[in-house]
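Sharing a chain and its predicted structure for anyone who wants a worked example. Both blocks are below, sequence first, tokens second.
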Amino acid sequence: MSDQPPYPRFSDAEQARRRAALEAVMARRGVDHVVLYGANRFGSAVGWLTRWPVTREAFVVVTPGERDLLLVDFYNHVPNATRMATEAEVRPAAPSGVRAAVDELRRRGAGGRRVGVIGPLGFRAHAALAEVAAEVVDLGGDYVRLRLRKSPEELAWVRRGCALTDLGLEALRAGARPGLDERELGDLVERAYVGHGATTHIHYFAATPMDRPRMGVPAQWPTTRRLRAGDALTCELSASWWDHPGQVLRTFAVEAEPSPLFADLHGVADAAFAAICSVLRAGATAQAVVAAAEVIEAAGYTTRDDLLHGFVGGYLPPVLGSASRLLEPVPDFVFEAGMTVVVQPNVCTRDERAGVQTGELVLVGPDGAERLHSAERGLLRTGGG
């Protein structure tokens, strides 16, 4: 018999670190109780604190000095949650939903006190909390800051997610061929890692003829278009190891040499990636990253996708565009060691008819950016070439 646990688990010390970090936020913000919320697989704070990945709906009531209460919907999800969230008391959220959390807050003496909230709580649930609390305080930004820097245990899980993502990329490279449509490309990718315990965070594709391009960035929903020799195939892949995904972006030439345009686009993208990574270290600023990527505009190109964004534990700051695609002013952000970010210069023509993807998740260190993926870089060929 195997003595392998049924689910991967962070250590008790890691869970205690997280609880202490949350309680420090509560003390700093002057709140006595916090409700964590998630629904429909969103709301990462629930799993971060309790080990229960959100399914349909979940509330967690947190009070210093008391055991966490995890309220889970649907009713038939409660047994599984009880096995996984072993530090919390687990009860069904049905039939009252947020009312069960409100009742527990009243029992804990939250009436007339400040109650914090983390997660995508809806209007009606917020109104229900406001009936008991003197003030409902949004701690979402505080939670995001807790997730920016990864602990050693979290980094080990991130590395696992990156390795599984690389399996998907290699399967795509080896198996993509003329005649397959984009739905079948997703099947290739997922078969490579699902059997190893991973789940799909995303897989985005775009295929377009290199001699008559019409797409500059991958699409979020696959089409029925079939690959053809001479296509450029771009992808953005993330396989997740228990809410700890990798992310890798690549461009393939399908059974053809890259056209001059795509070779030039990718050469600029490679230069931008290298320039960003050359400045990306603890103490670097967001402004320095955007400035490093100006090789894109200098070559006459632009971008559609983010240039860089924080990742793992959510879609995290900073979210940066290149100089010609700034959706908002460059933030006053300083990188710290232990942050994980995706560097992904999606270089495309000004009319956005042609574009390439390249990049991956990296770890910000004291002296530079560390690769977390082992996938081959550069403009690749399908079939392994």
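Comments welcome. The chain has a mean pLDDT of 95.
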